[in-house]
Amino acid sequence: MTNLIKQLTILTTGLLLLPLSLLAQELNQKQPTGLNNNKIELLIRDIEVTRTNSQGNISSYFTEIPQLRINNGDPVDFKSSVLQPYLQDCPSARRQLELFDQEIKQAKKVKRIGLLAGSGLILGGLFSNIALLSKDKETYVPFALGFGLGIGSILYGGIKSRKHRIVANRYRDNSVKLYNKKCYLPLENGALNLPLVQDSLPPEKKTAGNDGITRHYQDTVLYELIENDPKNYRFASLSLIPLDIEGANYHGFTYRIGLALNYHHSSRFYANASYKIALVDNLTSSSDGGKNKGGNVNPRISPADYQRAQELRVLGSLEFFGKDKEVSEEIYLGTQIIGGLPVQTNTDIQSKRRISWSVRAGVTTYRSVLYSESGLDFSSTEDPRTEVPNPLTGEPFVLHFDQLENGMAMLRSTNLSAGISRRAIRNLKIEVHNKAFKGKKRNSFVSEWYADLLYAPKLELGKVNYEYHYRDPGFEEDYQYEILPDATPLRKLGWRAGFRFYSARGWDLQLEVGQRPGLTKNMEYFSCSAMKTLGVEF
């Protein structure tokens, strides 16, 4: 009887507990599982990059990067694509990640817009100024205004971009914090899901007092110097000249484009050939007020035989003295992307730099429009024209061609040049033994100061348009003639001096001032060029 009562009691208890057991099982099935069991950590790593060169000199710097550690796996760079799959069941954290992406895109956008707008304002100011100067408006306000607004736009874009990145970092931190606070549920047995994305970085080195959040990664760069012979630096290159501006008091501003060929055999010999042609000649739209000393004469807008200004220059240099000296120089090793940020590594090394003194010689053919609002005098040996009589009086016209002030003529010349130059040559090549920056790195360039004397065995002026306006009571007439200014005094000597920085690849920059052969005065000029160079070293 007792056993029967026990069995009935057990059966009754089981029947009563069955619904509770089913309810508990249903509740257990509704508990968060899957992605919400993934452990997510945000690591803000202070990266110490230590540079060690072959002489044993050591220097270092710090940079900060964010990383993710998923389920105690290897840290990976923080990217939305890495974190997003883990936040599908956590709307509040996912929203913070979306805001992070928006701020990053906005940061890139405002920086790009600032750079493009700034560049456009600077170029717009430059070309507007050239256009105004070509119309005889002596002002530099457009260029100064465009340059100032352009630099301001670039700086403003950079500042706004930085603010967006600061806000983005807050959203980044919040996405992980909200996940851990609201959505993370560890598995009871302590097991961890495998990370969806894994990556590997160099081994971590924990520092004293490390709290498990901040890590230090040490990058040691070792390299070997495999080429350091500036005396024998050899290359050949082609330079595209998209920007060349020449200013002179005999034609205003001229905008030119062109090509250049370079052959650098060694420090002992170097040759260069360049051709430039004007896209914009600064021809004035009016020349009212320019008067001949002997009568009321207004010249035409352009010379009688106008052609675009151009210059063809060929020269070579030969070293007569050179010396290598030891110098400490900084060389770029490479850039490593850490945390989505470029971490650049440079190092200081002892290397050779060649100082080369050379003689230069060459030939230049040049043509340009001669014109100035302040007046340029042209003289002619032609006789006055008298074949056109006044129909009222029958008397012939008497025209004087001896002083054609403010006339416009083409100057054509062939100049021989001879001078001296001082070049500093660096030719450095290293091989880096480090998996982040491995490979061969080259750092080579030539900087040159030069001065030349010019002599023009061939120098000629083209014809000047001469327009005579006859005004008399009862009779008005305009007469146009082409006058050869062959009696104009010309000077066959000139000079130039300048600076140039060039290499086999990269940008070729040049500044030059001088005085060309031509009229006896007002032939001073300056020019600045920017050239994109493509070449090979051997």
**Helicity range:** 10-25%
Instruction: Tell me the number of strands.
Output: 19
Strand order of the largest sheet: 6-7-8-9-10-11-12-16-17-19
List segments where confidence is low: pLDDT < 50 over at least 5 consecutive residues.
Answer: 26-34, 189-217, 284-301
Report the C-alpha radius of gyration, rounded: 39 Å
Shape: elongated
Largest sheet: 10 strands, antiparallel, barrel
C-alpha end-to-end distance: 110 Å
What proportion strand? 35-45%
Class inferred from helices and paired strands: alpha+beta
Mean pLDDT: 77
What's the helix count? 4
Secondary-structure element series: HEEEHHHEEEEEEEEEEEEEEEE
SSE layout and pairing:
Layout: H1 2-30, E1 40-52, E2 58-70, E3 76-77, H2 80-83, H3 91-134, H4 141-183, E4 218-221, E5 223-228, E6 235-248, E7 252-264, E8 269-280, E9 310-338, E10 341-370, E11 409-432, E12 439-461, E13 464-472, E14 475-483, E15 490-491, E16 493-502, E17 506-515, E18 518-519, E19 524-537
Parallel strand pairs: 1-4
Antiparallel strand pairs: 1-2, 2-3, 5-11, 6-7, 6-19, 7-8, 8-9, 9-10, 10-11, 11-12, 12-16, 13-14, 15-18, 16-17, 17-19
Helix pairs in contact: 3-4
Structural write-up:
With 538 residues, the chain is α+β, with helices and mostly antiparallel strands. Helix content is 22%, strand content 44%. The chain contains 4 helices and 19 strands. The strands form 4 sheets. Strands 6-7-8-9-10-11-12-16-17-19 form a 10-stranded antiparallel beta barrel. The protein has a 4-stranded mixed β-sheet with strand order 3-2-1-4. Strands 13-14 form a two-stranded antiparallel sheet. Strand 2 and strand 3 (76-77) form a beta hairpin. Helix 3 runs antiparallel to helix 4. The N and C termini lie far apart (110 Å).
